[in-house]
Write a structure and sequence with these properties.
The chain has 114 residues and is mostly beta strands. It contains no helices and 11 strands.
Amino acid sequence: VQLQASGGGLVQAGASVRLSCAPSGSVLGIAEMGWYRQAPGNQRELVATITRGGNTKYADSVKGRFTISRDNANNTVTLQMNSLKPEDTGVYYCNIRITLSTYWGQGTQVTVSS
């Protein structure tokens, strides 16, 4: 399964960015979709996840600023990021879980300047 992500780039603090991701081709049974990020020198960390039923989970650092959503018909997951901060800078990775298998996208860079 290959994941295609779009969005990201260089923005100023306070700006908004939307990331989207979808698997190429037809994929059935995606239980959970999400976004993780990795800043230079840091481990990859959870940003937000969403189940097929719409249950969401957020990192404390992004609660109230980021919103994750998914379109089950198109297997698309979107991360709306508002009020961005320099500490949000990193490579954002799309992730999907199908039963016991996990797949990662190639990552998209988000850089927030102060």
